[in-house]
C-alpha cells in the first residue's frame, strides 16, 4: 500500500489574516467606488438616505467632486485597484516583496489624508453628507490603519532577521 503525501498548507499566520482582511476591504472599496463612478459617468441620482444632513447628490455634484476635471470616484477606484495589485504582487515579485508594504503605506497615507479632507468638506463646507462617500472614507480609514499595522509587522520581522544574522 502506497502512501500519498500532500503539500503542507501554509500556516494561517496573523500576517496572512491581515492580508485577507485587506483584500476584503479593497474589494469593498472597489464596489463602492464603482457605484460612485457609475453615478458620475451617467449623471444618475444616487440611491441615498435623504433628509437631515444626508444629500448624496449635493456632494456628488459639487465643485469638489472632481480634481483637475477627473471625478474623485475614479481616483478612488484607481487607488483600490493599485493597492490590490500591489498586495497580489507582494508574494510573487521580488520588488514588491522588498518594497510593497512601504509603497502600499505611502499610497494609503495619501488616500487617507485626502479622504479626511473630503469628510471635512462634507461636514463643514457643503454641510451635506453622502453615505456612499462616507462608506468609502470609512473603508479607506480601516485599510490605512491595517496597512500601518502590516508595515509595522514587516519592520519588526526585518529587525529580527538583522539580530539573528
UniProtKB/TrEMBL annotation:
Its transmembrane ranges are 20-38, 70-89, 101-120, 126-149
Which InterPro entries does the record match to this protein? VKOR, VKOR/LTO1, VKOR_sf
User: Where primarily located?
Assistant: membrane
Provide the topology term for how it sits in the membrane: Multi-pass membrane protein
The family database entries (SMART domains) matched by this protein are listed as: VKc (SM00756)
The text of the family note is: Belongs to the VKOR family.
Output this protein's name.
Vitamin K epoxide reductase family protein
Amino acid at each position: 500500500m502506497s502512501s500519498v503525501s500532500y503539500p503542507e498548507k501554509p500556516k494561517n499566520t496573523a500576517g496572512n489574516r491581515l492580508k485577507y482582511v485587506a483584500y476584503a476591504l479593497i474589494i469593498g472599496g472597489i464596489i463602492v467606488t464603482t457605484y460612485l463612478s457609475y453615478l458620475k459617468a451617467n449623471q444618475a441620482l444616487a440611491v441615498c438616505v435623504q433628509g437631515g444632513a444626508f444629500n448624496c447628490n449635493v456632494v456628488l455634484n459639487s465643485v469638489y467632486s472632481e480634481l483637475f476635471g477627473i471625478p474623485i470616484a475614479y481616483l478612488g477606484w484607481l487607488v483600490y485597484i493599485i493597492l490590490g495589485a500591489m498586495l497580489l504582487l507582494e508574494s510573487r515579485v521580488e520588488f514588491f516583496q522588498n518594497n510593497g508594504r512601504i509603497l502600499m503605506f505611502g499610497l494609503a497615507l495619501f488616500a487617507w489624508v485626502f479622504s479626511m479632507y473630503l469628510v471635512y468638506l462634507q461636514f463643514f463646507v457643503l454641510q451635506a453628507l453622502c453615505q456612499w462617500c462616507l462608506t468609502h472614507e470609512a473603508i479607506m480609514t480601516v485599510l490605512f490603519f491595517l496597512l500601518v499595522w502590516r508595515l509595522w509587522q514587516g519592520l519588526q520581522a526585518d529587525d529580527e532577521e538583522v539580530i539573528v544574522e
